[in-house]
UniProtKB/TrEMBL annotation:
Residues annotated as domain Nudix hydrolase: 7-135
UniProt lineage: Bacteria, Bacillati, Actinomycetota, Actinomycetes, Kitasatosporales
One Pfam family linked to the record: NUDIX
Stated name of the protein: DNA mismatch repair protein MutT
Domain of life (superkingdom): Bacteria
Entry keyword annotation includes Hydrolase: yes
MF annotations from Gene Ontology: bis(5'-nucleosyl)-tetraphosphatase (asymmetrical) activity
CDD domains: NUDIX_Ap6A_hydrolase
Keywords from the named record: Hydrolase
Length: 140
């Protein structure tokens, strides 16, 4: 018999990108979460009766202040988190409008070129999403 600890926590997020206002080059948005002191892609847990796509867009807005236009589906990451399995569903997403305001969850964001973003990400598993985004945007 399985316990509720065996059921994966469902979450969703985006690899948020834009064209640099300075030179038109690709930039990715990373969020800094003071609770964990880490750099990651914007993501969060699904609310009751919420689908992953809706969650991904909501989390981007909450954590970055930007409106995201979802693009290609990216790999789902699976890993243990606080003693439970977790599944995070990701999409490529273009930032179409908005501006960042510091909040309880995220105190800073960075817009970085892909190589710098890959190097800044705290978790190695998140780095694979940078490569997946580049492939989805046909930039590899």
């Amino acid at each position: 018999m399985s316990s509720s600890n065996d059921i994966p926590v469902q979450a969703a997020g985006c690899v948020l990108w834009r064209r640099s206002p300075m030179d038109g080059e690709l930039e990715l948005c990373l969020v800094h979460r003071p609770k964990y002191d880490d750099w990651s892609h914007p993501k969060g847990k699904l609310k009751r009766d919420e689908d992953a796509r809706t969650c991904a867009v909501r989390e981007v807005a909450e954590e970055t202040g930007y409106t995201a236009r979802l693009g290609a589906r990216l790999p789902t990451l699976r890993y243990p988190a606080q003693g439970r399995p977790k599944e995070v569903h990701y999409w490529a997403a273009e930032a179409v409008s908005g501006a960042f305001t510091s909040n309880d969850e995220v105190d800073r964001i960075l817009w970085l070129p892909p190589t710098a973003a890959r190097n800044r990400l705290t978790q190695p598993r998140d780095r694979t999403l940078v490569d997946a985004l580049l492939a989805a945007l046909h930039l590899t």
